[in-house]
Structure prediction request, 370 residues.
Amino acid sequence: MSIEFIDRKTQYQTLKSGINERIQGVLDHGQFIMGPEVRELEARLASRVGARHCITVSSGTDALLLALMALEIGPGDEVITTPFTFVSTAEVIALLGAVPVFIDVEPDTCNMDSRLLAAAITPRTRAIIPVSLYGQVCDMDEINAIAARKGIPVIEDAAQSFGAVYRGRPSCGLSTIGCTSFFPSKPLGCYGDGGAIFTDDDSLATAMRELRIHGQSRRYYHTRVGIGGRMDTLQCAVVLAKLDHFDFELEQRIRIGADYLTLLRNLKSLAPPVVRPDRSCVWAQFTVQSDDRDVFIATLQAAGVPAAIHYPVPLHKQPAYERISRIEGLLDHAERLAGRVFSLPMHPYLTSDAQASIVAALKGNDAHHA
Prediction:
């Protein structure tokens, strides 16, 4: 049996006619930059999230960058985030000359520990970026409450959690600004790079729309220093086609995730992920923990099962960030997780037979090392 880590081929075969029709539409009208599909996608995404504004952009990284630029964050400012995430989260802070401030994560969800946030805030704190890692939203109400007392905006890095729900509300619509990614491996992915920004703030939305087109308020009239951050019309067309089936795929992700949790609950040397009862997880990755990670991964590979590590080195240990970031408190959980986590195949088309094979390999290794 061939097991895919993320099965984009089966997804394409399933959605082929709709995707091809949408792409052909763009090829026919020829508006490859800012074509009608861009506005259509923005309207549909804003409606889904319940936000006043959606701005599609060239990547999830640029979504975060444009959010910070709209907030006019620059040299000497501090932005609090987590060290246990993909590098983009801190990269955009550093690119603007600001200081990434790292606080530790919860050992079970791997998300920012909101109890550590207040102590990290200084007069230089200009924004907070919690990361909804692996598809589960952070403690956004607690984070927002702490930020509101200090008048600090919150940017949800929801690159992995589009479609997730937190206390009845959708990810991306929970804070000052929400940013997501349509990178191909994400729950809602395009066929290249893409992303989106959500906000209810009219002035921030205007700023981000101008910033993504080189700071233009109208053609060749530049009110801001911006970037080339537009999402291609073709990529918007792909997301529109996939959006028609997204609710079905979310149901499958949640079902497959629940099956994993049931099948893995009695393993002695492996800890399954934890989902808080007041929120859902869309399983951008299904990431487990073990002190025997290398042995488990080798066992899986021998059984023909792919695995990945998200993420092996926390950001405060990365050479580019060691000297330019500030650490608030101990980052013990982030450091320990980096040595323990590994991700199993997860996608909406994962069959029960494939899942059984994956779990059988894990259980065989667990029994051997228990």
Q: What stands out?
A: The chain has a mean pLDDT of 97. The CA atoms of residues 114 and 142 lie 7 Å apart.
